[in-house]
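As a warm-up, study this chain.
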Amino acid sequence: MVRTQCVVAKTTDVRLQLVEQQRCLEQQTEMRVQLLQDLQDFFRKKSEIETEYSRNLEKLAERFMAKTRSTKDHQQYK
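Now compare it with the structure written out below.
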């Protein structure tokens, strides 16, 4: 009977340790999921900014090229 009580006590201890470990793993997983979501948002916003910058730069280059094509000075150097 003493041996049975010892086995039950050890089983309970192991169960408690496993529950605590599972809780820690769940917290780590939640933190990592949040980090991935934050990174996803960051790269999405970065992509939007870079796309807008690219469009604006292209418009600027087009305006510059149109201006230089129409000037007489540019025509002389062709």
